[in-house]
Amino acid sequence: MADEVDRKFKMYFSGIWQHNLDWRRFELDHQRATTDDNIGGGRVQNVNVAKNAVESKLARKMDDPIVHDLTMRIESMEHFLQILSERDIKMLELRFKKNPDKWDIVSSKLFRSSRRLRADMKKIKEEYRNGIYWID
After folding, report:
1. Where exactly are the structural domains of the chain?
2. How far apart are the C-alpha atoms of 90 and 98, rounded to whole Å?
């Protein structure tokens, strides 16, 4: 279970979720629209289809399950971080960025013992695991 919490923190603080979200939005922006085989007339099969390109792009972004999933993950992590202190957030950033710092470096930057930081990390993970922020 702790490995899963570590993975979620790593995905958020290293920017992987945000990168994946930006990439998916880019894909949706540059995706070719489906062509209508009904050339020459006839009735519109689906009247709820957007009439212009901007509306259809926006509808594709809003209805995309990948965009929705990544947005929910990022927003739930941001809500969780609001209940933490600045020192706890800084500790998470230093430990879970792309090139994480070792405990002794984090302790020297935050002016706390590495033992105290590990206890704080354990408390934060437990709080995250037991909170409403857990999204699979």
Report:
1. 2-26+51-130
2. 14
